[in-house]
Write a structure and sequence with these properties.
Radius of gyration: 24 Å
Bound molecules: MU-OXO-diiron, calcium ion
Oligomer: single chain
Structural class: mainly beta
């Protein structure tokens, strides 16, 4: 039967002003507790973090990682199993996307040489960096009204770039993923650049590998000649080229287990032990972790496709119906995807751990979205033999099912999907089942004025302060939403509109299309999550480089309507030479401050990303990522030049951290 209509929510706080201060700004009546910072120990045998680069690298597998990102709270019952309604004890699982190297070592990264000859020379620094990426599982609890983590919990775990993973689904055990580390292609080591996240109805965590391609070293001048034309097409499409992020592969390789050398994606010699070509094929996946089983081996779910995964949001869960996850590929001009399970959901699988994942996530259909100008759209299936995904394709000859998921971007190209303005988080409204996607921003190079379309409609100039460079294109981003036909997750058609356009409140009407004001204007939407305790409440987080002359990054609370609550509109885009081009689009109803208002502003140069809530919705957890990240002006020997000292203050190095937010009267957060 139909679910009872939820009581209408109202936003119950006074919006906060934009801020450039090096502190958290929250509405009156709320308290934030800094709970879990970069380097904090998660084991009783590890000392407190010195935060000056002197901490022993071998302790970092038992410390908080860096750049806290997507996050899920799992309520835990007395028996140490998943209990979604548990209100004051749980496991908080979060991603550690990347690092700010200047703050990790005594004096930044130690290197010698330049160009392709530049190498890291201190293996201990690299070991720290390996451990600082990945995922934390920590037990959290409430003492009185204050949340904290339990340093000695047996559930505490770090998953990082050295943790063994099992490959699962169509790409597992194929020739494409056979490596020196796993000669049968059943396993790989590590996860990296874990950005947004996702959940399953059986109580596990999904972590998504985003900008993994840049970590691999592949010097094209020497490697290209050793590759087939087909391999070069795929390597180019995914951007596997260069010295490798953080130069990990340049540390003298440990030849016994390939600890550093696996970040080399080159064919170094004729023998199998010198052939590293397949390493990149083992990254770029959605990874499933069972937080309640600390000894379990995470699974890379290859059926969900390989790309720059932002997140994987679970759609409506209905007994007897297939499950669905919605996913963005965060790069300019990339796509929006969904995965629909073959098997129908059986609630008896709650608590089934990774075996349930094997059942629902290894077998299904992968689709990519195509948007039409009239507000409709189509899901195109990515499968060998359909939608131009064939051996005869002139750009890329697809060989088999594993080739299609490993090279999902090429399959989506062949199918003719719509290139988007950087798809970040996906979120599903529990009231309507509608799907929201942040399209964070793009620039004039990636989408010139002549390439705007109805779903990516804007081109204009965002004026920064006098010392900063103006940004042209779609610098402030937008939030798109869609509604599956008949409310059915297996539908291959949908209706869409643009829920919100980011903009300065002072911008002209053709730019400030959602009529934002001083209390709710924002730029570059990224994190996006619907409360489960307060159905209909949406949290929106920013990762901005445009409006930063006026404000630090922020989080807003929203009460969105439905697809089609506004209407068709023609906007005037303005080219660099002052000429104009008309672009039609479909714009949602302007929210006003009743349905959108600013809740939080973070410290200097942070990104606000990652949100979860306690079982009763009376606490939320939010991640403050990379405060003070502009290390071009930070002098590691002179703390007075750091741009941020958050959260520890004084002359400290800044640290990414998880905060817990509660309302002083014990009420729900935001409503
Ligand atoms: Fe890691 Fe797309 O943000
Ligand atoms: Ca993000
Ligand atoms: Ca972002
Ligand atoms: Ca970031």
């Amino acid at each position: 039967g139909a679910a009872p209509a939820p009581a209408p929510l109202t936003l119950s706080f006074n919006p906060v002003a934009k801020s450039l201060e090096d502190r958290l700004v929250l509405p009156a009546g709320y308290t934030a507790t800094v709970m879990y910072r970069l380097g904090d120990p998660i084991s009783s045998d590890v000392p407190a973090y010195a935060n000056d680069g002197s901490d022993d690298p071998t302790t970092y597998d038992r410390r908080a990682g860096d750049h806290h990102d997507g996050m899920t709270y799992f309520g835990m019952g007395a028996g140490g199993t998943w209990a979604p309604s548990a209100t004051d004890r749980g496991l908080l699982v979060m991603n550690h996307e990347a690092i700010t190297p200047a703050f990790l070592h005594p004096a930044g990264q130690t290197t010698t040489g330049s160009g392709t000859a530049q190498v890291r020379t201190v293996p201990g620094e690299v070991l720290r960096e390996f451990y600082l990426h990945g995922v934390s599982v920590i037990e959290v609890g409430k003492t009185g009204s204050t949340w904290g983590y339990k340093r000695s919990s047996s559930f505490n775990r770090r998953v990082h770039t050295l943790t063994e993973m099992r490959l699962s689904g169509p790409a597992a055990r194929t020739d494409y993923v056979k490596t020196r580390y796993s000669t049968d292609g059943s396993r790989t080591r590590g996860t990296v650049n874990n950005c947004a996240n996702g959940t399953t109805p059986w109580g596990t965590y999904l972590t998504c590998e985003e900008n993994w391609a840049g970590y691999f070293r592949r010097v094209t001048a020497t490697d290209n000649a050793k590759r087939t034309a087909k391999e070069l097409t795929a390597l180019s499409r995914y951007g596997v080229a260069g010295n490798g992020r953080e130069l990990w592969a340049t540390v003298t390789p440990d030849t016994s287990d390939n600890l550093y050398g696996r970040w080399n994606a080159e064919v170094l010699g004729a023998s199998a032990t010198d052939d590293f070509r397949n390493g990149p094929n083992t990254y770029g996946w959605v990874v499933e972790i069972d937080p309640f089983n600390p000894l379990s081996t995470p699974r890379k779910r290859t059926a969900l496709g390989r790309f720059g995964h932002e997140g994987a949001c679970l759609g409506p869960v209905v007994a007897g119906k297939p499950l669905v996850w919605y996913m963005g590929d965060d790069s300019r001009n990339e796509y929006i995807y969904k995965f629909v399970s073959t098997r129908a959901w059986d609630p008896a699988d709650v608590g089934g751990g990774l075996a349930a994942g094997d059942k629902y996530m290894d077998d299904g259909r992968l689709y990519v979205a195509k948007f039409a100008a009239d507000g409709t759209g189509t899901w195109l299936e990515l499968k060998l033999g359909v939608n131009n995904i064939t051996a005869a394709n002139s750009t890329y000859a697809f060989a088999d099912a594993a080739d299609v998921v490993i090279n999902a971007r090429l399959a989506a190209d062949a199918a003719g999907a719509t290139r988007m303005d950087r798809p970040e988080w996906t979120a599903v409204n529990p009231v309507t089942g509608e799907v929201y996607v942040t399209l964070t921003n793009t620039n004039a190079t990636a989408r010139p004025i002549t390439a705007t379309d109805a779903a990516n409609p804007r081109f204009y100039n965002d004026p920064k302060g006098s010392a900063q460079t103006a940004q042209r294109g779609n610098p402030n981003g937008h939030v798109l939403r869609f509604s599956e036909a008949n409310g059915d997750v297996t539908s291959t058609t949908f209706k869409w509109d643009v829920y919100l356009f980011g903009a300065r409140s002072t911008a002209s009407a053709d730019i400030n299309l959602s009529q934002l004001g001083a209390d709710n204007d924002f730029s570059s939407p990224d994190g996006l999550w619907f409360s489960q305790a307060r159905p209909g409440l949406l949290w929106l987080q920013t990762d901005d480089g445009a409006y930063t002359d006026v404000t630090n990054c922020m989080m807003l609370a929203a009460l969105p309507g439905k697809v089609g609550d506004g209407g068709a509109k023609t906007i005037t885009n303005i080219a660099a030479d002052g000429s104009t081009r008309q672009q039609g689009t479909i714009v949602g109803k302007a929210p006003g401050t009743a349905a959108l208002r600013r809740f939080l502003v973070g410290p200097v140069e942070c990104e606000i990303t990652g949100i979860a809530e306690s079982g009763d919705g009376r606490a939320i957890f939010v991640n403050i990522q990379h405060p003070g990240e502009d290390t071009s002006v930070a002098n590691i020997g002179d703390p007075s030049k750091f741009t941020s000292h958050w959260p520890d203050g004084g002359s400290s190095r800044p640290r990414s951290a998880t905060i817990a937010i509660t309302r002083n009267d014990g009420g729900f957060i935001g409503t």
